[in-house]
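Sat 14:20. Reprocessing the chain from the morning session after the first attempt stalled halfway. Input below, unchanged.
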Amino acid sequence: MSDSHTFTTADGRTVTIRPIRADDDAPLLVDLWQNLSDRTKRLRFHAFPRHLPPDEQLKRAVEMTHLMPGRDAALVAAATVDGSETIVGVARLSRSVIDKSVAEAAVVVRDDFQKVGLGTHLLQSLDVVAKGMGITKYEAWVLSENKPVIDIINKFGYPTEMETSHGETHVLLDIFGNDEAA
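Finished this time. C-alpha cells:
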C-alpha cells in the first residue's frame, strides 16, 4: 500500500494519511468511534449499536485493522489532538468476491474534521491504492439523506450509476472513467 503523506485541511490543520496498522490502531479506532456523533454513525453505518461494551468495541476495532492482502485496504487520517496521535478519518475498500475489479468503498471522518476537505482527500488517496490493486470501480450504499457524500461522489466527475430504493442509494463509480477529475 502507498506510503504516508501529509495533508493540510482547509482550516489549516495537518493530518497524516497512512495505511492502517494491524492491532496498533485498534485503540485509536475505538477513540474515533467514541468521538463520532450519532448522526455521523447513522449516516456512515446506517444501523449501529448504541451501546457497545468497551471490550466489544476493541474486539471489533482489532478486526478492522486486520486486512486480507489483495482484497482489503484501509487508510487512516491521523492528527495530533490534545498532544496525542488520534485517528480522525478512515477510508476502506474491500474487493468484491464476485468481480475482482469492483470494491466496496467507505469513508468516515470525525465530526470536528468534517467539511474541510479531508473526506475528499481520503477518497482520492484510496483511489491510488485501488488502481494499484487493479480495482476499476467502487460500489457503495449511501443513505439518500447523506447529501455531503453524494456531493463528494459527484465532485469527482467519474462516470457514476446511482439507484435509490427504500432510502438508500446504491452507487457504482468508475474510478478510471475520468482520470483528470482526481
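The beta strands are 5-8, 14-19, 72-81, 84-95, 102-109, 137-143, 160-165, 168-174.
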